[in-house]
């Protein structure tokens, strides 16, 4: 296929089922969504594995990355990049372990009971969690790897992991983290977007992509 342009796409390639490597080939729900949308508009994609969500945002802001997948909207992010229409939705929940002594009734309650949390550095999971993270900073550990966070939880070193429900379940099952399970405590539910570098995309280009997304 002839490409009009090649886009550098920032990705966490160790985050199944959304984005991961299979025999060195990028695969997953977000990868296929990106190929479907941008391929139809004659873009070719080069997926760049990012060490953290924070680094991905920094490189997008600098124009070193053209596009991010799986982006949650926030006003702060919107000052630095363009957002597409939503292409899927996500639910972020608390994961805990079988022997946890904290039977929390809510996310706030989990913090008030002294629970410790592992969170993805640089991710946006809603204003309520930002409020809690500022009120209880000593109870949060920031790790960029979902697998690392869930491994710590499986070993009982922390009380909770904040994670996308599907990704957390998939990785726990595939890695044999049999002490880990998803609670019913929802941290954040939100639409998921592509996020574009303002240095790379014009308003007109983003509008064209959004028109295509609305027609899907």
UniProtKB/TrEMBL annotation:
Q: Which UniProt keywords apply?
A: Signal
SUPFAM superfamilies per record = Periplasmic binding protein-like II (SSF53850)
A Pfam family in this protein? SBP_bac_3
Q: Where is the Solute-binding protein family 3/N-terminal domain?
A: 7-157
According to its UniProt record, which protein family does this protein belong to?
A: Belongs to the bacterial solute-binding protein 3 family.
What PANTHER family is this protein classified in? ABC TRANSPORTER ARGININE-BINDING PROTEIN 2-RELATED, MEMBRANE-BOUND LYTIC MUREIN TRANSGLYCOSYLASE F
Which protein, by its recorded name, is this? Amino acid ABC transporter substrate-binding protein
